[in-house]
């Protein structure tokens, strides 16, 4: 049996040390590369998050993968609102423009149309109309694999308004247009006030219902004299909630000042609608959520959703029709 040469063992150790040194250098190089990539990622993330335009990334199956926070500035809704309700994007678009936008996105994703801008109108959360322009561009990864479309939506309402001013001024209607604008601004302001007051009432009713429910549960665990006091409190709460129904009459008067003839037109077209149906139509017209409807009507969110479904049937809406958009055209 032959013994290993000591020189060979020394050479082997040196080789291993050299290999270890090379691995360490490579590891250090990869760490620096990762730091560079992380810095670049953070930089592009900052640019994307603070972009003025509303940026979208839509995959080849028309699913929204990313939505920039700027959507809130244009629509009043957050990215989470759009992810929770994928149909919200098209629900905001004015019905006459919806198919145009759908076709534009579909054609862009299928490479039938890329780089062509499309203009459309939408209604914000507070029911203000905005003019928007959407441009799309194909997205590919480093290997050339198609990842979908990057869409940029810009608010061009001021531009449209400015062009309208120039056109009307050339036709000597400058003061008339100014007066109409002031009137529209006043109506928009009054509508915002209506929506704000309704939301506050809904929130208050929700809190009152919560207190009433918990007091009812706690009551059974209390001594007799205290139970009587709690019963008196519950009766006052019930009376208060019943009296809230009278707020509707005051609201209806203010609503008619902003949207004249809404209820009469609604009744003429759909004579079977009850007073409760008309009330729900007005709330939905203003863009209130199911939860807010429940608070105003003193019912559960589930009952409010069932009410919406029944209302759609009475109005004869197809499944593809948006209830809010339909009521805007009444």
Could you explain the architecture of this structure?
The structure is a single chain. The protein has two domains: 104 residues, Beta-Lactamase (2-Layer Sandwich); 144 residues, no CATH class. The longest helix is centred in the middle third of the chain and has 46 residues. α7 packs antiparallel against α8, α7 packs antiparallel against α9 and α12 packs across α13. It is of the alpha+beta class and 330 residues long. Strands 2-1-5-4-3 form a five-stranded antiparallel beta sheet, sandwiched between helices. The mean pLDDT is 78. 65% of the residues lie in helices and 11% in strands.
How do you describe this structure in short?
The chain is of the alpha+beta class and 330 residues long. The chain folds into two domains: 54-157, Beta-Lactamase (2-Layer Sandwich); 185-328, no CATH class. Helices cover 65% and strands 11% of the residues.
Summary keywords:
single chain, 330 residues, alpha+beta, Beta-Lactamase, 2 domains, 5-stranded antiparallel sheet, 65% helix, 11% strand, flat
Largest sheet: 5 strands, antiparallel
Give me the Rg, rounded.
31 Å
Question: Mean pLDDT score, rounded?
Answer: 78
Which residues form runs of ≥5 with pLDDT under 50? none
First-last Cα distance: 103 Å
Strand order of the largest sheet: 2-1-5-4-3
- Count of DSSP-assigned helices: 14
Number of spatially distinct domains:
2
Task: Return the string of H and E elements.
Answer: HEEHHHHEEEHHHHHHHHH
